[in-house]
Design goal:
Helix content: 40-55%
Number of helices: 28
Distance between the termini: 75 Å
Strand content: 5-15%
Strand order of the largest sheet: 2-1-3-6-5-7
């Protein structure tokens, strides 16, 4: 049986353990005493039971691991200094045989202490260096400035009373200046297509929100503690340093609002209820589920992509506790094969130390602090305060939407969406949400985006910019006839040009201008476009006074990709006219036109004109057509010419039927291939 220890021996033994572990002895003695945990029990029990005993006693995670490491040394050297006097007499006789074991234990213990020390230094060293540098910097300032600086940065240890030392809190600046928005992204270029552009838009979104609400901002691209707190862990030491009591960066700041690089604001007018958090004594506001965090220790029970943290010593201690779990050996013990990230670490700290932190934490669920992007895709309605369809029964606009899993900059995805389709889905959903939020900012200037998927903007109706635009485009078309090809556009243009309607004027010259569809025409600018109607005006908006409506007919506008966007920019109020035709008749007419162009080299009103128009190779060579069309015309000429003076009509009819049949067969083959399964 284990020999009984006196209370004095127990106290000495516990002092030895705590001294070797280098932890706060007074608080731990109190917790162990309340839980009836004896020093001899710690030495006698297996390591996993010791961890359970200490956790039940209420010790913090960092202290538990320090004590367990110290106990390993005690097991190796036979009990340590605290219990040496109580060892059996026979132990001395076996001392010589135990010297190698003791030396091995001392080596293991010394190595452990060294690793723990380096780990602690790796976290605190940046703050220590920063403190020394800022102290030296302040010593060069005047005494008046130094006094003001220290008075302004009296950091409250907790809410609900005066800070340590009895100093009054720092005076507040403007209401928004209480908050600093903090974000970070990688310093290297993105490895994905359009990734840098996406990150630029995400950053602009954050800066615009901060500007609207007078928030300070801190944008970081540095790894503050790259050797142990990499990637997502980087936010922990960064926030810790920014919350330093004497940091000039956060002068006058009471709250730090962290935003991941893949999170954006979508309700630009919403602000978090800071006054309510002050009254409730809250220091940390983060989305979360109390049951999943405090009971289940579920890593998905909260989201560290966006959270609000009060600048106080309580918050610095919380960040230190989270950073202490970044050690690989600890990650393996509390995480999934060591793959625990800062979100899992924060969950573990709140779960295992709930009594210490819970009262100051608000797991916010009264508004959407971390909307999942997939839930909101295709549900935004431009200019509307509600979603097109509710999300989880709520159609309110979310405060923040996060694109977790997209990895639009780094080029990989944890959720398997990183393929061409996944990339497009993520980026399209991002642009849609970004545009929705950006419209709220642009409305202050009288602007809005043309559509939810474009960066182009137009002036809002009634704004100053809109009225200026109306004056400059008053000489441009009021309506556009956009097609369809072989749908009667030529006949309609002829009627309008010949005076069919007295109140309408169409462009002079050729029927189709193609201004919005052909790049070379669009590059000439709107003044050249304006002059196509009456030739007057050296400036936009200057033309002969008349009451007629101006219009233009170009069948290419219907299906050219850029035409609609360009027209909407220049002529936002123009009416759109579309002429349609029965599909089969339109298809035959279209093929007939293309065949005539190929044979005759130019558009003709009838097939008879085409038959009779080609009378020699000279006519074919003079036609303004593409080389492929000219080669086809030469081939038909060689097959169907009569004495090199004209074309045989029967031969031309056979050529038309053969080419039409071949085109139909080709389309049927393509349709058949597309219908095959797989």
């Amino acid at each position: 049986p284990r020999p009984m220890k006196s209370e004095c021996d127990e106290g000495l033994l516990l002092d030895g353990i705590l001294s070797q572990a280098r932890v706060d002895g007074s608080e731990i003695r109190r917790l162990l005493s309340q839980s009836h945990v004896r020093a001899s029990d710690l030495i006698a029990e297996p390591e996993h039971r010791v961890e359970a005993m200490l956790q039940r006693a209420g010790l913090v995670v960092g202290d538990i691991f320090k004590i367990v490491r110290a106990l390993r040394g005690f097991h190796s050297d036979g009990g340590g200094g605290g219990g040496a006097s109580s060892q059996p007499q026979g132990k001395a006789a076996r001392g010589s045989r135990n010297q190698p074991t003791m030396r091995c234990g001392l080596i293991v213990y010394s190595t452990t202490v060294l690793i723990v020390t380096l780990t602690i230094l790796s976290f605190y060293l940046p703050a220590m260096i920063y403190h020394v540098r800022s102290t030296n910097h302040r010593m060069t300032r005047s005494t008046t400035y130094s006094t003001t600086l220290h008075g302004h940065y009296s950091l409250p240890a907790a809410l609900g009373g005066l800070p340590a030392g009895g100093a009054m809190p720092a005076p507040r600046g403007p209401s928004g200046a209480r908050v600093m928005m903090v974000t970070a992204n990688q310093p290297l270029p993105c490895t994905t297509r359009r990734g840098d552009w996406i990150m630029e838009l995400a950053l602009r979104n954050k800066l615009m929100y901060a500007t609207l609400h007078d928030y300070k901002t801190w944008w970081s691209t540095e790894l503050v503690s790259a050797w142990d707190l990499e990637a997502a862990w980087n936010k922990i030491p960064l926030l810790y340093v920014l919350m330093h009591p004497e940091s000039p960066v956060t002068q006058g700041v009471e709250w730090l609002l962290w935003m991941d690089d893949d999170a954006i604001f979508t309700d630009m007018n919403f602000t978090m209820p800071l006054e309510q958090y002050d009254r409730d004594g809250i220091n940390l506001v983060i989305w979360g589920d109390p049951q999943r965090v405090y009971r289940a220790n579920d890593i998905q029970g909260l989201n560290t992509g966006v959270f609000l943290l009060r600048k106080c010593e309580w918050s610095r201690q919380l960040m230190a506790e989270v950073a202490a779990l970044a050690t690989p050996s600890i990650r393996r013990q509390i995480g999934n094969k060591g793959r625990i990230a800062e979100q899992g670490a924060l969950t573990w700290v709140l779960h295992s130390q709930a009594e210490r932190w819970k009262d100051r934490v608000q797991l916010e669920r009264n508004f959407t602090l971390n909307g999942n992007w997939m839930d909101y895709a295709k549900k935004w309605v431009p200019g509307k305060p509600k979603l097109a369809l509710p999300v989880w029964g709520n159609d309110a606009i979310p405060f923040v939407v996060q694109y977790a899993g997209c990895q639009m900059c780094r080029g990989h995805s944890e959720n398997g969406s990183w393929h061409d389709g996944g990339v497009r889905k993520c980026q399209n959903a991002f642009i849609e949400a970004y545009t929705f939020g950006d419209d709220q900012v642009l409305s202050l200037l009288g602007l809005r985006h043309l559509t939810m998927d474009t960066h182009l903007v137009r002036a809002s109706a009634g704004s100053e910019l809109y009225q200026r635009h109306q004056r400059m485009t008053r000489c441009l078309p009021s309506f556009l006839v956009i097609g369809t090809q072989k749908g009667g556009t030529s006949s309609f243009h002829f009627l309008l040009k010949s005076g069919w309607h007295d109140a309408v004027r169409v462009n002079s010259g050729e029927k189709e201008i193609h201004y919005f569809s052909w790049d070379d025409q669009f590059r000439q600018g709107p003044l050249t476009y304006q002059q196509r109607f009456d030739g007057s005006g050296d400036r936009l908006g200057e033309c002969a006074e008349e009451t007629k409506l101006r219009g233009e007919v170009s069948a290419t506008y219907l299906d050219y990709p850029k035409a609609a966007e360009r027209a909407a920019m220049l002529l936002p109020s123009a009416r759109i006219v579309v002429l349609l035709r029965e599909p089969v008749a339109r298809l035959v007419s279209s093929f007939n036109m293309k065949w005539q162009v190929e044979i005759c080299g130019k558009l003709t009103w009838s097939r008879t004109d085409c038959y009779n128009g080609v009378t020699s190779m000279r006519v074919i060579n003079e036609n303004n057509v593409a080389p492929k069309q000219r080669a086809a015309a030469v081939k038909v000429w060689n097959e169907c010419s009569v004495d090199k003076k004209g074309l045989d009509h029967d031969c031309l009819r056979r050529d038309f039927v053969d080419k039409l049949s071949a085109a139909i067969s080709d389309e049927e083959r393509r349709l058949g291939e597309g219908a095959k399964p797989g």
